[in-house]
Amino acid sequence: MSVEELSATQRAHRTSFASLIAGRALKKRRLQSDQELQQAALQLIGHNHDLSELILESGAGLQVGGGVCDRTAGGEDVPDRTAAGQMGAALLEGELRRQAGELGVPVEVLCVRVLVEKLTGMNLRGVGETAMINHTQRAELSVFLQAVRDLLGVFSPKLLWQHYWKTQPVLEVVFRLHTEEILPLEYTLLSDPAVCEWLVCQLQCVCESRVSEPEDANVRKQILSSVVCVLVRAGFEDGQDSQYCSSVLDRMLSWLLDSPGDTHRSQSDPAAGVWLQVYDPSVLGVSVSEEGLQRFFTHSLTHIFTHRAQLKVSDAISMQSQWSFTKTPPLLTTLYRKVCVLFQVEVVLAHLQQVLETHEVNWQNVLSCVSTLLVYHTHTHSCLKELLSRLLNAAFESYDVERMITAFLLARQGALEGPAVFLSYRDWFKMSFGGASGYHGNSKKSLVFLLKFLTDLVPFDPPQYLKVHVMYPPLVMVKHRSVLQEYVSLARTRLSDLKVSVEEMGLYEVVSGAVTEGQLQCPAQQDVEKAVALFESTGRISATVMEASIFRRPYFLSRFLPVLLKPRVLPEKPDTKMAFIEALRKAEKIPAALYLSYTELCLKEQHTHSRHGVCCSREQEGNPQMALQAQFQELRRLLSTAASEGEVRAQLATVSHSLSSVCTAGPHSPTTDSVITLALDQPPPSHTPAAVVNLILQSFCQCVLEACRLRPPNRQGQWAGQFVKVLVGHTPLYTALLHRLLQILHLQGPSLAAAHVLGLAVFLVELHVCRGVCSPVRLSATHSGSLSPAEALSSTLPTSTKHHMEFSLRLCVAAVCYAVCRSSSNTEGLSHFTPTHLYKQLLFLMPRLLPDSRPCVLAEVEGSVCSEEDMFAWSSITDPSMCVRSSAKALWTHPAVRNLQNHPEHQLSFSEWLRAELRVQRSEDALTDPERQVYERWVCQQWFLPRCVSSGGCGGDVETACTLIITALLDMGIRPVQFPSTPPHTDSCCTDVLSRLQELLWEMQCSQVGRRTVREERHFLWELINHRCTDHSTDPSKPESMSTELELQRTLHTCNSVLLAVPAVVLVGVHCAGGRSVLDCRALMENINTHQRRVCSPAGVLTCSLTAHFLTAVLSASVRCESPAEAVNSALSQISLQCPLLLLSAGRWWGYISPVLCSLWRRVVGGEEPALLNLLNTCHQWAKRLAHSVSDVPSAPAPLLAVCLYTALQQQGGDTELITAKRTLSDQNREVLAFLLFFYLTDFLSAHLKPQGERNLNRTRDLSVHLLTLLVDSSDWLSLFHQSGSEHSTYRCVAKVTTDTTLRLMPFVFYSVLAEVDVCVLMRAVKVPGFLYTAVMSYTALLKLFLQGHTAASGSETPQQILCKAQQIVLKSISLSRMGVLSHSQHSQLEAQCAELDPEVATALSMLQPDDLRLDF
After folding, report:
1. Rounded to whole angstroms, how far apart are CA atoms 764 and 791?
2. At 1213, phi and psi to the nearest 5?
3. What is the pLDDT of residues 488-514, one digit of tens each?
């Protein structure tokens, strides 16, 4: 056996010192003193001279002794653990001193040597190069250090470190020496400069050590936190300034920054990630003061910004697009967040500005840090804008290029994160330099400085920024335009070198600084869709397209037209795109060959479609869409686990990046100047897959549910608003979403589940909150302007049927409840979160569907809002046991919700209520007919009639209420609104609203009668109708007035339906004249003469119902006069003189209305009938007798006799023989025949304008020819065609009777009839005074009609043939006329007009002038 083996065996069998002491404690104590016992122990120790083993045995003995003492606690003579420890320490100290004396060395030197030898002999180096030891070594070291701590009075800790430093120490051993209060780390780390290098290596080894047990991970965390706390205190506390400590921290931070850039969260505990954990204020704040901690983080932030500042500015400009938040390693983004967590965003940006001005920086770290701040902190947006403003101001004050570079890089970095986070580069550049108040507008020097700066950027600028500079150049004065042109030319050249020609840019391209995968190189598809949308809204080809066809012809021919003319199956009814293509073809903007090829290919597509059927293409979900779905699932997970708002915002930034790849049109920044048009019949944009839109909406609803399961909206943060802003940032996707939402609200609303309704409600509210960054929306079918998207969608909520009302109520209640909770934790009030149209929809539906809530609508709101009410309102919609009506009642008890009525923009006015009520379908209404009557009376009498006008009511004025009702009825008939769709007139609530109008009118009428005083009354009804009709009054001679005439016809048709529904008595007023009350028919006559006359069909006669209603009004109103018969006679006499149309209409329909009027007179007045009624009856009896025998003509106006005769002839056949047989009438009263001719000429024109068959046209023409033959020798009939020169005032009433169209087309009628008369009749007509003048004037008017396109074929003749015949008649009439038949003024007038229109006729007219006058000329 060797010496070493023998020694080991002895050690193994040797009894430990602690065992000896413990054993003696169990034995009976002998009768000897303590001094004797101590001397015996020393003699026993003397046999063992290995001091290191003795120290280890002593430390172990303390633990064992402790256990022995615990087990024998009942013995009074057993020494406790402390006594045993003190005894062991004393024995070890004595032995050390004894051996030191024998060796002749100081006891502290011997003690340190023994301790270091033991530490070295324990082989505490672990595995490999790690700075941590294993579990067994850690336990042995713990025992050893307990004994060493008892010897602190024997040796110097500093001397111990000096000796241990020479043995390549291990960081965990040093950490244990620190925790056992043997050797403080402060001394260790500051003892030698070489410690810095050692400590860095050890720290990196600790971070790189692989741990599998929780104990090891905990030890590693303790080591790192303790070391960092010591380093931070030593380097950054007050009175401390250790360069060594700060150097260690800097080198470790550099090591973290230099870690591989592809480190992801998926890797388990990377080394750099372990060191990242030390930047935790909660850990460091325990041992470090707040000031020291702030200095440390400020220093770290500076080091991050300046670490490896190797990239030049030119490199940063070209590589910046790769440094967005989504492309920054998560390790760095987490580092930025941890380092900046102690500071406000303003402080961080101010420090960043200071570093940029005093150091060379690492642009990648600087810009990626700015992106992280923008994504995680919403306040960064405004702070960064202020910083950019300060930088630009300072740059232009001192013409500092460095500040300019900094501002541009920071602005572009913000733009990379999308419009949901920061301004697009385009908007920032336009805001900074695109206006007169731009930073460069102070002087020419500032402009030259800016353009010089932009010029220097050209070689390095990516194309997307050059596009912005070219498309939206800085605003310059005209005299400096040449300087700008130099830069633009240079930028275009650079774009051409980069193979990005400006010609390839879209016509409507929204240029943004962001560049993502999937962005189209040629956005022709968007251009086509935008051009078609503009054509649909304006009816004209946009100026942009027309300019592109000239100035950008290569792009127009090679990009725009091929996309526009993509072959497809053409619809049976031409759509907007087909109309747009046709308009371009007519404008000669499409080459003929290209258009021919397009039509042929479309025919082939249609043939293929009909042969094979419609094939539905299944959308293939590619990797981008799957990635997007996974990211939405991750977002749901974050919301369901109550993750921090920063993590949710970071995930949304990732979603935004993925949306750019999924949408084929690429991202675009939202533009508040472009309007999105929504229509149900308009197909959604093709550049965004429908599956993506559905996925987004579904994911949003799911996220809302996940978030609401944990917390109410006021504690969820801003994730929902950020989600919506991300969608708004992608304009094509945003447009597709709005189309889809419109379809869902109108086509699927009642079938939506509660979760979907809640999600859509939240989406609408958040869309309303971020309305400032959303493109406005215009509803294609409405005449109103653009609205914010939330307001537009809210205004289209369907309420026409019971199911639609219930769905809209669910949505409105959910949205307002969400808005209530959101506003409770925000500085803005509830009005900021609630769309006005949505709240008005709620106000309309609540009292309609919930009768119990009607008193609450009228009651004043008292009390303040408390948080419990907010939570109760929210719980009412999230509780599945509560129905929507219960939730609505719970919501309406909230004071803030009811107080919202006091805001002017949220008040539901009487007009808005009427429009909503008129859209309800009676057959599908939630109310029965009696319930609807009760509800509408409550609305009119209790809600809006007493309400003040400023709050949308009537102010207690019945006339105002009637005016609003009539206006609503007229609006419904004239301008029907598509959103929501208006039901058919017969199924609307129009009849119910008219009943309310009749009730109010009778109330107003009775109140006036009850006053028993006759005063000057305002005819508000006529004023309202006249105002409506005046809006459509134009010059009828202009061709563009045709559409206005049609609008007037539709307007008056609607007005007449209202007039016929109101009580007739209100149409005629009563006023005092000469001390007596008389009827006031002025408003009635003005309306008939001005407006009703223009739309009569047939011309010259009112409808039978209107005629009876107007005359009934006169008779009914007479009862308010002292002498009704006298008042009626006076009024009817006035009507016969000033309103001949009503008189002739009464004659035309007398056979139908006489029983009605006579019966009314007998009922309300009695006695002798009015004189005009008797005269009408007499004229009709005469007309009937005239058909059988000749009788005396009554003393009546000629027009009245003519219309009665016309009516009788119509009833008895009206053939030409009957008219010819009445020649005696022409001798007695030619005026009657002249007006009869007028009526038949009007019939002829009506038959021409509204074809009713060739027979009717020929019949009316033949009757007119016969009448003209009877009257040809008289000049009376000429006054029907040209009245200005007529001396017969009797015929001037023609202009007050017939329509403007008839008067305008009388020249056409004149020659249509003259062309059919015999030659002898024409020769007789030429001899009539005034014929030639009338014929030439009618001919020139006919020429003008022909040039304006107001003529059409008459029977089998074309307008050219009629015009040719007219010319022949005029020339023949001139040849048959004698010289001097025209006065000098007439001759000059006619010759001047014909000189331009028909020189041949002008030459013929010149022959009628005397020779002496021609010579003078």
Report:
1. 9
2. 115, -40
3. 888 888 888 887 766 555 555 544 445
- Nearest Cα to Cα of residue 656 among 846, 864, 421, 869: 421
- The CA dihedral of 639, 645, 650, 651, to the nearest 10 degrees, is 10
Q: Which residue has the tokens 């094979």?
A: 612
Cis bond before residue 1098 (omega within 30° of 0):
yes
What pTM was estimated for this model as a whole?
0.71
Residue 1215 pLDDT exceeds 80: no
Residues listed for the chain: 1417
Residue with the larger pLDDT of the pair 264 and 278: 278
Give 862-887 as a DSSP string. -S---HHHHHHHHHHHH-TTS-HHHH
Query: pLDDT tens, 103-132?
Result: 767 767 777 787 777 777 776 664 445 678
- Report the distance separating Cα 44 and Cα 719, nearest Å: 77
Instruction: Give the type of residue at 1001.
Output: L
CB 282 within 8 A of CB 293: no
CA distance 795 to 803: 17
For 211-234, what is each residue's pLDDT tens digit?
878 888 888 888 999 899 988 988
**1335 and 1384 in contact (C-beta within 8 Å)?**
no
Count other Cβ atoms within 10 Å, centred on residue 9: 11
Question: Rounded to whole angstroms, how far apart are CA atoms 319 and 341?
Answer: 28
- Number of Cβ atoms within 10 Å of the Cβ of 1227: 10
Q: Secondary structure of 4-27 in the HEC alphabet?
A: HHHHHHHHHHCCCHHHHHHHHHHC
- Identify the three-state secondary structure at position 1080: strand
Helix then strand then coil, % of the chain, to nearest 5: 70, 0, 30
DSSP notation for 1011-1054: TT---PPP-HHHHHHHHHHHTT---TTSGGGHHHHHHHHHHHHH
- Alpha-carbon distance of 997 to 455, in angstroms, equals 72
| Statement: residue 1149 has pLDDT above 90 | yes
246 pLDDT tier (thresholds 50, 70, 90): confident
Q: Strands 676-678, 777-779: parallel, antiparallel or unpaired by DSSP?
A: parallel
Residue 1344 CA to its chain's centroid (Å): 50
**Alpha helices (H) in 1213-1330, listed in sequence order:** 1216-1220, 1223-1228, 1230-1249, 1254-1271, 1294-1297, 1300-1304, 1306-1314, 1319-1326
| Range 531-535, long-range pairs (CB < 8 A, 24+ positions) | 531/507, 531/564, 531/580, 532/576, 532/577, 532/580, 533/677, 535/576, 535/579, 535/580, 535/583
Q: Give whole-number Cα distances, 675 to 10, 531, 536, 775, 879, in Å.
A: 97, 13, 13, 6, 39
Sign of CA dihedral 1408, 1413, 1414, 1417: negative
Contact 1060, 1106 (CB under 8 A): yes
Which letter, b or e, does each residue of 132-147 get, where b requires 16 or more Cβ atoms within 10 Å of its Cβ?
A: bbeeebbeebebbbbb
3-state secondary structure of 1193: coil
- Please count the other Cβ atoms lying within 10 Å of the Cβ belonging to residue 354: 12
- Compute the distance between CA of residue 946 and CA of residue 959 in angstroms, rounded to an integer: 13
Helix (H) or strand (E) holding 1072: strand 1069-1073
DSSP 473-521: PPP--GGGHHHHHHHHHHHHHHHHHTT--GGGS-TT----S---TT--S
DSSP annotation of 541 reads -
Nearest partner of 182 among 205, 202, 154, judged by Cα:
154
Residue 1298 main-chain phi, psi, to 5 deg: -90, 175
Distance CA 144, CA 61 (A): 11
Q: What is the reported pLDDT for 10? A: 42
Q: What angle do CA 492, 493, 494 make, to 5 degrees?
A: 90
Which tens digit of pLDDT belongs to each residue from 912-948? Answer: 999 999 999 988 999 999 999 999 999 999 999 999 9
pLDDT cut 70: percent of the chain above it: 78
